[in-house]
Amino acid sequence: MEDDPGIRVISAADAAWHDVQAVFGTRGDPSSCWCQYFKMDNAEWKTASRETCEPLLERQVQELDTPPGLIAYLGSEPVGWCAVEPRTNYPRLSRGKVVQASTEPTDDPTVWAVTCFVVRVGFRKRGIATALLAAAAGHARAHGARVLEGYPVDPVARDKVSSADLYYGVVSQFAANGFTEVARPTPSRALMRLELAT
């Protein structure tokens, strides 16, 4: 299906909190993670729940100088989320095999990462994640990013891909937004990079 021209993307800091809650929902992985997995160590994550993670994201949205993500709307309906921040804000991320293939310094705050997409059931296959990714590049560039990385899944390289596996995004979506594949650490996961003019 073609991208819906009614998609609008804004900073999570400019969205009503109940709109963010509507996107993360009450079932499935997003409703328990609230984009905290890459920010917690193993011990913290083992005891994490919606009750601990949702307030953390709310505080990050309200207090960080650069909000940790974007919200997509279809008309007035909140329908999607994209997490995009300096890669240094994601301590667990640097331990992953895909990210370790990056040649960018691990402590460089001008290297940003797109780590997660959430699109509500009933609104998928309308170009929402692609619109979020395009907006994420603009958001990162506006806040001083030099490079934006993504770690998407390649569904073509897997026999079966569940919707839960797609929270990283897909290779074709990143390619359509101008990202270049720079490494393929596993057959079905790519490291993709977009150079941002500053």
UniProtKB/TrEMBL annotation:
Pfam families in the cross-refs: Acetyltransf_1 (PF00583)
InterPro entries registered for this protein in UniProt: Acyl_CoA_acyltransferase, GNAT_dom
Keywords per UniProt: Transferase
GO molecular function, one term: acyltransferase activity, transferring groups other than amino-acyl groups
Domain of life: Bacteria
Domain N-acetyltransferase: 24-197
Protein name: GNAT family N-acetyltransferase
Source species: Mycetocola zhujimingii
